[in-house]
Each structure stands twice: as structure tokens, then as C-alpha cells.
Amino acid sequence: MTWSNVHRDEIRRSLSGQKYDVLIIGGGITGAGIALDAASRGMSVALVDMQDFAAGTSSRSTKLVHGGLRYLKQLEIKMVAEVGKERAIVYENGPHVTSPEWMLLPMHTGGTFGRFSTSIGLRVYDFLAGVKKGERRVMLSSQETLHKEPLLKKQGLKGGGYYVEYRTDDARLTIEVMKAAVEHGAFALNYAKVESLIYDGNGQVTGASISDQLLGEPFEVKATKVVNATGPWVDEIRASDSSKQGKTLKLTKGVHLVIDQAKFPLKQAVYFDTHDKRMVFAIPRDGKTYVGTTDTFYNTDPIHPQMTASDRSYIINAINDMFPSVKMCEKDVESSWAGVRPLILEEGKDPSEISRKDEIWESASAHKHRRW
Length: 372
Description:
It holds the Pfam family DAO. The chain has 372 residues and is α+β, with helices and mostly antiparallel strands. The chain has eight helices and 15 strands.
């Protein structure tokens, strides 16, 4: 059966017609990746998402398979190494949706990065991330840096680092991974919302009651194991399972602005620091330049995060500081997008200081012989 909306009814009948080894809740890149991993190991896999696939965080990123250079500043050495290796795997398996993108890292007097620290940092990054020889960092003089990007602020410019990130289409990448999972036998259905979990007499989770958001009809999916890969909604599912204990999530919002190249004719992707010591990307793509991202705590509905006036001002100010000749103003912003990051709460830390590490949390309902 072809994975297509044309066969949606058949997919739904298949989901409710048998017991699966694994039911995955969430159709973003995490859920898709888990589905592919499980299906390729011979497990029977069901996956549902209450929205469209990749509708949440997985379509609202900076459109990079980010190597995590800034995590070196936080001494997240293991994470940089892991991200670099995983990025290479993504590129190897999906070169049609992933491509190398040379990134310019300008260095200014009084900025976050000095020439020596940048040189060492990028060298360590190349080593940890397993960067291929032809894509290893190059250090540039101030003149060479301006040649790469003439719009950069000239005052105090000391030079630049030149290194490789990987550009992608985040939503398309998610769909490609999901397609590969389906090719290995997984069944995936969008607009299928988990309303509640199902338990046996011992309190072990055995599946989920699901509502078809298009037809309004309920159905059940039975499974030996249930994986909560819902991103910003992870704690909501945990709460319904009475397992929201110990560590919890903290959501932060990231916003990107889109400007026409006629106004912001950037010719080189740039990764630059802001006045508050954060890092922001400015990337030319298909006649536009997009710039982001912000990082602020977010406490409202994660389905439709919105750009605020302060978000827009923050990015515009960052643009005008690093690219003063552009003279960006509010009316120059053509569009924007906002996404929500599900991070593990670390009390007392600012949004950009919270680690981006992954963890697996296992609830008591995942084990047999549990008594309420």
C-alpha cells in the first residue's frame, strides 16, 4: 500500500486492526527517526500525530542540520561530537535534502570571539564533528572576511572564521525519514490525536485511544510499548499517564524574520554574535535573506507560537548592529516564522544557557505488574 492520503482509510484500519510492537505518538523528526530505527530492526510500528507531519518544531527551525558550534562555549563536548556524527549520517542518507553551507563567523573587537579562541574552537569543532578534510575551517583576515560579505560592520573587524554547516529543508527531511520508515513497514497517520492511553489490569500501558481529526471518529491502537515523542507536548502526555514526576520540560520560542534580497542583499551565510552575547544566523536563500533566531521562555499554546513586536525588534537591532549599511526597519520584514523548543528545565538558567541534550524518560506504566 502506497503511503498517501488517498489510502488514509486503509492506513487507519491497519492501525486499529492489529497489535504493534511500538506505538509512537508524534510525527516530527524525533518520532520519524524512532519509527525508522524500530521498523528497520524488524519491529511492527504505528505512528500518529494530532497535526500534519512536521507541523510543529520540525518545520520551524533555522533550516540547518546545525553542528552545534556554540555548544563548545558551554563545554558540551560530547554533544558536539554526537551532533557532528549524526549530521554526517543525515547527509550520507539524504544528500538530496541536505547540502554543505559555508558559514562566515566574523570577529570584532569587544565581541564574543577572538582570533585565537575562534581558531582553536573551530579546529576542535572540526575534530569533534568529524568534518571532512575539504570542509575544515579556514581563518580569514579582515579584508578576506569583507570580501566574503561586504555588508558586514567594518569598524573593529579583526577577521573571520570560515566553516561548514549543513543546509536542509527541515519539514522535507522529516517526510523523507517518515517515508523510509513506511518503506520498512511502519504505518503512519496524521491528524490522529491521542485522547487517552489504554492500560491493562496491572497498570501497564497497552496502547492509546485516538480521535481522527478529519472524520471525527475514534479508534484504538494497541501496542506493547508506547513512545512519547510529542516535543512541546511531552509533559501533557506524561500528565495523562500520571508520570509527570522528576524532570520536566521548559519551552522556549525561536523567531526568524524574512527580508527580500533587494533590501538585504546578503551573499554569504553569516553566524554572528549579538549585544547580549547570543549567536544569530543570517542566511541568503532563494532571493530572500532570513535571520534568527530568538530564544525566550514560552508558556502559552505551542501549536501557534507568534512573533511579538519585541521579537521583531530584537532581530532588527541585531541586523543593524552587524550590517549597519542595510538600515533595516519594521516595514522591510516580509514574513516570519516561530517555533517552540522543548528543553529540559534547568532552574536559574537563561533560555540560551539551557542544554540542548536529549534524555529518555521511562514511566512506571511501561513495566509489567504495576499496581495503582
